[in-house]
Amino acid sequence: MSRVAITGIGFVNSLGSSKQSVWEKLCKGESGVRSITQYDPSALKTQIAGEVTELDVRSFLTKPRSMRLMNKGSKLAIAAAAQSLRDSAVNWGSVSAANVAVYFASENQISGTERIFPAIRNSRLNPTTIDYRTLGKEAMKLYPLYFVEGLPAAALYFISEQFGFTGASAFYSGAADTGLSTVGAAFRAIKSGESSYAVAGAFDDAAAWWSMIRMEPQNVLAPADKSKLDSYQPFTNNATGRIIGDGGCALVLENMEIAKSRGAHIYAEVLGFGSGSETLADDNDKGQPIRRSVRSALREAGCYGSDVELVMAHGAAVPLTDKAESAAIEACCERPIVTCVHPATGHQLSAAGTFNVAIAALSLCNSLVPPTLVDEEELAPYAPLNLLTRVKHHTVQVALALGNGLEGQSSALVLRSV
Question: Rounded to two decimals, what is the model's pTM?
């Protein structure tokens, strides 16, 4: 079995469009959450988000003509992947394309909505009723590639097309657990010898109106306007839900022996991956799926819970799920430092899981842990014992990254400094 290194990291989110800018702002305690500007959010209870408003991917493309088929989500994915590939400093021209795996995740579900509005408008019988017979006829006039743009896995194709990779690949649809699972899949592909390199990541155009109207009825978003930019408060008495944000995050993983032989900068070593699932039922939930995923990851890593010094928490800011996550961390680990970076960027949905892995790797590499942007005076009784609310210089050997889904799914990854 091969050892696996993380050698490349790429970010695009509300804090910036480069690894360096995002990392520096996280450690300074800055936030990218602002009033929504892409559309009028006044009809929503949640009117703030972590938006990416400027995104020019032309410099990342090897085949620019494909850009006309990309929606914003695909552009986030391409930008993050391209940055991670550059950051790894691999001479990709000398690598067999079939030896590079690609794993990505997203909740991407819709194409550019501006293309369908005319058909809906022309099919209205009145402000609240659609004539579906007319809609069927109007739909035939849609931009021919409308549905191609909205394919959930389109970004996987674009990444393979732009960079020529032909190795193992898979696309995952879901929340932060799937974003973290892409790194787990990449880790195991390299560990088993199936691939020598892998690009793993996730992306979501989370601040778009489609995501907002889909998630608001689920009561997982914090009601907030521009006067409440700090409304995302996980593990506190003020927790009323998360604030979401646009984001793309990608990592390059490679065989450790190859990475060392070429003198690569290694952020961290991946040791183990685990996942679990169980519907969250009531207030007595003790985070069983999280416990299963953590213990599975620790078992594969050959580590004990006492070895874990840092946990990158999911931090849903929903009391029931925060309480379950805290209970699981306490049960599986011995008083590690815990931080949740998502209040700074807005929760990036599937990309939040990959982001947690990336920030864990950067923390291991830089001996610096970014804070959780919450009111430390309002920490809930169930908050993790060592929840970090201020940046901390701290040498960490073993870190644990968590990513949870909306229905009790959980994934965990164990990393070690090199």
Answer: 0.93
